[in-house]
Amino acid sequence: PSGLVASDATAVLTAGTANITGFHFVGNVDVATAAGSQRMMEFTADSIDLSGTVTVTVTQDGVTVTTVSASQDFSDGVTLYATELSGDLEGLPVASLDLTPSTITVANLLKLPNAGLLQLANLVTGAIPLTLTGVTTDQLLISGGIQVTTALSMS
Fold first, then answer.
1. Exposed, middle or buried: residue 148 (CB in 10 Å: 0-12, 13-18, 19+)?
2. CA–CA distance, 13 with 149 (Å, rounded to integer)
3. Mapping DSSP to helix (H, G, I), strand (E, B) and coil, where does residue 118 land?
4. Whole-angstrom distance, CA of residue 126 vs CA of residue 68
5. Half-sphere exposure of residue 75, counting CA atoms within 13 Å on the CB side?
6. Among 11-25, 46-60, 71-85, 112-126, whose mean pLDDT is lowest?
C-alpha cells in the first residue's frame, strides 16, 4: 500500500469476540516498515466490533506496553492488515480459522471442516456477517474512519 508504513514492534491483539460485517480478503501485500517490509494479509470491512476484554500488547526493544479495553469498534471503511488472524467461527463446531499470508488460499479455506463455503463467502463476497470468538491478530495495522474504545487502561 502506497505511503503506509507499519511499526517494527511486535503487536498482538486478542479479543473474546469479533463481529465483522462486509468482510473481504483483498490479498497479500508487502507493507513497508522501518526495517524493510512485512508480508501481510489485507482485509476490508464495513465494521469490526471487538468485545470481551480487548487486549493489545506491543513490544519493542525489550519494552512492553499493554492496553486493555472493554470494547473497540471500528467503522466507516475499515482496512485491516495482519500477519495472522485466528479464532473460532461462532455457531459452527470445530470451525477454527487460522490465516496467514501463506495459508490464505481458496484451496486451504475449502479444507476447513463444515465451514469451507461459509468462509469463502465471507472472505470473497462479505455477504454474510462473521462472528469469531477467541480472536488473535498478530502484527496488526488497522485503519478506519471511526474508532470507539470503552474503558481503556494501559500498563
1. exposed
2. 14
3. helix
4. 29
5. 7
6. 112-126
Contact 87, 134 (CB under 8 A): yes
pLDDT in tens, 85-120: 888 877 554 455 656 666 555 445 444 444 454 455
- pLDDT for the residue numbered 112: 44
Tell which wins on pLDDT, 150 or 1.
150
- pLDDT at 96 (0 to 100): 56
Residue 149 grid coordinates: 474504545
H or E element that contains 121: helix 116-124
Cell of 57: 500488547
H/E segment holding residue 144: none
* pLDDT tens digits for range 6-18: 888 889 999 999 9
130-138/84-89 β-pairing: antiparallel
The answer to whether 43 touches 97, Cβ cutoff 8 Å, is: no
Element (H, E) at 109: helix 106-109
- Closest listed residue to residue 128, CA positions, set 91, 94, 78, 73: 91
